Amino acid sequence: MSRNRAPHTIAVANGIGEDSAFGAVTPPIYLSSTFTFEGFERPRQYDYTRSGNPTRDLLAGTIAQLEGGAGAVVVATGMAAVDLSIASLEPGDLIVAPHDCYAGTWRLLNARRAKRQFNVMFVDQADEEALAAALARSPKLVLIETPSNPLMRVVDIRKIAALAREAGAKTVVDNTFLSPALQQPIRLGADLVVHSTTKFLNGHSDVVGGVVVAAAQTDAEALRYWANVTGVTGSPFDAFLTLRGVRTLFARVEAQQKLTASIVEFLNSHPAVRVVHYPGLPTHPGHDIAKTQQTGFGSMLSFEIDGDVDAVRRFLETVEIFSLAESLGGIESLVSHSATMTHASMTPDARVAAGINDSLVRLSIGLENEGDLLADLARGLDAAMERAG
Ligand code: PLP
């Protein structure tokens, strides 16, 4: 129905004005866990909310359209989405994952490997030789995360998906850091896209959720079947809130990345900052790839404070508008310390291998006033530079 609409319009308007009962402009929320049969052996479209729910399906359909997929399954968390995307693997199968993936994904893959559910190779996917060596081992699945969390490394989705296909593997892309407003991996050759909808898609830090989008109808059906078998499907109330967030996705993302450009410029020339990781910087190693596969550079960045852990502590304890909290993609600005927070579940060795040191701080830029955010960071960095005692 909305096939020819621009993505921006799909996000804002999908399901609007379609209520046949009362003409409600906003789609109603269906919280019911169960649905009546019209009669004996005559089920309706929905019978039980674990298997299917109109509110959740509207969200799934909207995200599937935004990602250019054939279908999507909305699940309870981003981790449930990652787990669902790898559910087809069998003992002996190999998955190739990024060496610097989100620590929760790293933990999940290692935990399932420890139970011998499949094998995993963590590789630097920007290293062509390492990637070729991994693909030579005939993996079933290649998982990509670009830009990566928290170092914002960018890899070439089109290239890796093509190589994976040649090697007989499907490609899954975790698109959480950009959202479909800035990157659509299926259009670049990916088979599946996963999101923690907790982040940009919901955008208001009041829902934990996830989604898996499939390029092929058969994969979408297999995902739907397995999500019902394992019961990981998301709640209708969460789906309702997330759909409300999706309505403003494009407007939020555009405003947030505009603010981010100013913040990156400020940090990049600040004496207390050793390095800024942001794909929008021409000096960023992934800048050229980002320009070809992203339609914007987003509002996530990380940087290293030029100092020890005490300098980091002074910075984190001085900033006020940036809340010290995990997560990202909401309308409020957040700061986190990767080594002790988001990536604490990685071993110290794995963190070193991924390039995450103790001076690294990650920012998620929200929608506050630009001057207020810059002043907050300036105060924090002044405090970081003060000598203790
Ligand atoms: N993927 C990425 C890139 C993430 O950053 C996160 C969470 O931070 C997840 C997956 C997991 O999502 P959730 O916390 O909703 O389970």
Task: Quickly describe the structure.
This protein is α/β, with parallel strands linked by helices and 389 residues long.
Most strands sheet: 7 strands, mixed
Strand adjacency order, main sheet: 1-7-6-5-4-2-3
Secondary-structure element sequence?
Answer: HHEHEHEHEHEEEHHHEHEHEEHEH
Gap between N and C termini: 66 Å
Instruction: Specify the number of helices.
Output: 13
The share of residues in extended strands comes to 5-15%
- Going by CATH, what is the homologous superfamily of the largest domain? Type I PLP-dependent aspartate aminotransferase-like (Major domain)
The total number of structural domains is 2
Structural class, by secondary structure, is alpha/beta
CATH class of the largest domain: Alpha Beta
CA radius of gyration is 21 Å
Morphology: globular
Q: Enumerate the distinct ligands.
A: pyridoxal-5'-phosphate
- In round numbers, the mean pLDDT is 96
Task: Predict the CATH topology of the largest domain.
Answer: Aspartate Aminotransferase, domain 2
How would you describe this protein?
- This protein is of the alpha/beta class and 389 residues long.
- The protein has 2 domains: 7-246, Aspartate Aminotransferase, domain 2 (3-Layer(aba) Sandwich); 250-385, Alpha-Beta Complex (Aspartate Aminotransferase, domain 1), CATH 3.90.1150.10.
- The protein contains 13 helices and 12 strands.
- The chain has helices at 7-13, 54-67, 78-85, 103-114, 128-135, 157-166, 217-230, 236-247, 249-268, 287-293, 309-318, 348-354, 370-385; strands at residues 71-75, 94-98, 119-123, 141-145, 170-174, 192-196, 210-214, 273-277, 300-305, 323-324, 334-337, 360-364.
- The strands form 2 sheets. Strands 1-7-6-5-4-2-3 form a 7-stranded mixed β-sheet, with helices on both faces. Strands 8-9-12-11-10 form a 5-stranded mixed β-sheet.
- Helix 2 packs parallel to helix 8 (236-247), helix 9 packs parallel to helix 13 and helix 11 runs antiparallel to helix 13.
- The chain is globular and about 80 Å long.
- The model has no long low-confidence stretch (mean pLDDT 96).
- Pyridoxal-5'-phosphate is lined by residues 77-79, 82, 102, 104-105, 145, 149, 174, 176-177, 196, 198, 208, 210.
